Amino acid sequence: xxxxxxxxxxxxxxxxxxxxxxxxxxxxxxxxxxxxxxxxxxxxxxxxxxxxxxxxxxxxxxxxxxxxxxxxxxxxxxxxxxxxxxxxxxxxxxxxxxxxxxxxxxxxxxxxxxxxxxxxxxxxxxxxxxxxxxxxxxxxxxxxxxxxxxxxxxxxxxxxxxxxxxxxxxxxxxxxxxxxxxxxxxxxxxxxxxxxxxxxxxxxxxxxxxxxxxxxxxxxxxxxxxxxxxxxxxxxxxxxxxxxxxxxxxxxxxxxxxxxxxxxxxxxxxxxxxxxxxxxxxxxxxxxxxxxxxxxxxxxxxxxxxxxxxxxxxxxxxxxxxxxxxxxxxxxxxxxxxxxxxxxxxxxxxxxxxxxxxxxxxxxxxxxxxxxxxxxxxxxxxxxxxxxxxxxxxxxxxxxxxxxxxxxxxxxxxxxxxxxxxxxxxxxxxxxxxxxxxxxxxxxxxxxxxxxxxxxxxxxxxxxxxxxxxxxxxxxxxxxxxxxxxxxxxxxxxxxxxxxxxxxxxxxxxxxxxxxxxxxxxxxxxxxxxx
Length: 531
Hints:
This is Rieske domain-containing protein. The protein is α+β, with helices and mostly antiparallel strands. 30% of the residues lie in helices and 17% in strands.
């Protein structure tokens, strides 16, 4: 086991101190050597960085360059983006419990997600009982597989029809068949392991799946790929979430050890030449050296990454064999608007190499490092959103100075938002504007309610680790109790010493475990100046 652990740790290059995990280590899967061609490209980037620094000291125009100005106009009319005629991801199916209903909010809609075992499918309903508007998500699934409101016991089938009202007399009028007794059922589907819903219950959208489908990635259904998923709630809005994800100049960067050897700064800072190839109502597409990316409005952003090829003993890159499938990894993000100042992220990084790691390491272990990275920007982004709201979303480009090509995707997203949605999400009549106040930092960055309760793997790990903490404390107390209650001549000195030592070790382990649980499942503070 020690040999296996050593092999795994060396292959992943996991740092010994999780608190110092940087973004550049988030996807640092070093399963193969780095080719010399890649090293040379990094050296060229370093030279460009020096040139950029030299040029920046000379007088230049301070007007920011819009990387999308040269794009051809693909829309003859500036048709506005319809936020309520789109598919929205709700949650990964792997994190939904079929035994209970789940409360979720998506683009301002409070919905209840539940498993209809009669139709063997997930359903998305309006989270309000038509009787007295009690939340159906607080109800239960009864013995006949119906969704039951816990307030007065009304029951609904998978189509939203009311099937039973306990208070209605059996010989009276069939009030449960009235249209007003039904609950709104939204079109929904499961694709790529994610539950999607269409936020419109008009009859014309009943068969919308046959006309328009959610974005599809064949890699997520390919058995040769591993695709562990994760989800996270954030205390900042959808716009800030997408900005953060499409900004590669601060992102986690693969092959960070190579970049560090070239003495770039620890965030991987260097000029990044990004070109926006297309921008229209459906999103935008970008290319840069080493990959391409695409934003598919309103929620999906992905980036394709090709890991380096192997290197021969002479230092030259080997050509991949035609019989060996090309190594490939995708970074797929689903950015979900929840409400003003709230968003949800579902992400997965499918890859067709190093698949054995995910078979032996539980999903929650990877989430520890991923949450560490996601939290590192959380407070900054929350404050940033409030400052943007102060100047007004329409004044974003006046307030922010974005002169380099590394900001091309951020500028493209803001241009898309301005052109097709008047600089902000259309919430309908649900919200009047304004952001929720800033809570204390410990509450703002709490991981338990933003991730653990919504993740099946982390939830099980959290319960197991807490149970282990209690077991260690009990063992410590029992060991001391045995020593105290037993006469001195009954136990030998060696046995008494061993029991005392075990009690001390169990107590120390329980204290360490309590700290580990709190720091990884509740709150982890950041002081970037000391990291």
